[in-house]
Amino acid sequence: QLQVQESGPRLVKPSETLSLTCTVSSGSVSSADYYWDWIRQPPGRGLEWIGSIYYSGITYYNPSLNSRVTIAVDTSKNQFSLNLRSVTAADTGVYYCARRNTVRGVYWGQGTLVTVSS
Amino acid sequence: DIVLTQSPLSLPVTPGEPASISCRSSQSLLHSNGNNYLHWYLQKPGQSPQLLIYLGSNRAPGVPDRFSGSGSGTDFTLKISRVEPEDVGVYYCMRSLQAPTFGGGTKVEIK
Fold it and tell me: How confident is the model at residue B1 (pLDDT cuts 50, 70, 90)?
């Protein structure tokens, strides 16, 4: 059974960088069948796609966040990561890592709440 | 950019009664291969979203048959034939190709 688990600091100061790692178990980030996504949800609001990485290392970012986002993959650790720079309170929310197959859908992690506050 | 518009925003339902949610896309989601790349998810309170329907009309494994999806191109519908109390939560449609896009969500609650 696939597991994807987010880890990283739960509290980030304004203007600093939010960094999260997703560890994948019982599945491989090197699979050509999937995209590896970061998705977030502000408190009480809807879902927002942040970006994706493919096994080849190709990345796709939400244009609204493109200038602040970097997603990378570490195949040796079977992990992928998110860096979101220059955060503000508007970046507070639950951050999900996920595995997406365009046909069979998204498998979500449990999510981690990240708060931006001084 | 593709925009997905869901309606209604809120849907009070009576257990045992049917319910219907609409998702309209600003551009066609019908691919040249014949697939509509539109999925439906349910986010129950305090949980991650879970897949209900993929490619517009296919139930995901383990999803009760009271859930059905239909539509093509720009207009899609999720139907619940008889709402159960455990169906409460927020329903999202999602475009799964290229840059994923989510609808704004429809909150289903029991009357």
Answer: confident
Beta carbons within 8 Å of B47's beta carbon, 6+ residues apart: B89
Q: How far apart are CA B56 and CA B38, in angstroms?
A: 5
* Mean pLDDT in residue range A94-109: 95
pLDDT tens digit sequence for B73-105: 999 999 999 999 999 999 999 999 878 999 999
> In chain B, which residues have their Cβ closer than 8 Å to the Cβ of A105?
39, 41, 51, 54, 60, 96
Strand-pair partners of B25: B4
CA B84, CA A16: separation in Å to the nearest integer? 45
Structure tokens at B34: 């014949």
Say how many residues make up chain A.
Answer: 118
DSSP letters for B7-62:
E-SEEEE-TTS-EEEEEEESS--B-TTS-B-EEEEEE-TTS--EEEEETTTEEPTT
Q: Minimal Cα distance from B39: which residue of A? A: A105
Mean pLDDT across B25-42: 97
Chain B: give the shortest CA distance to residue A46, in Å. Answer: 6
Q: Span A12-20, mean pLDDT?
A: 98
CB within 8 Å of chain A, chain B residues 38-67: 39, 41, 43, 48-51, 54-55, 60
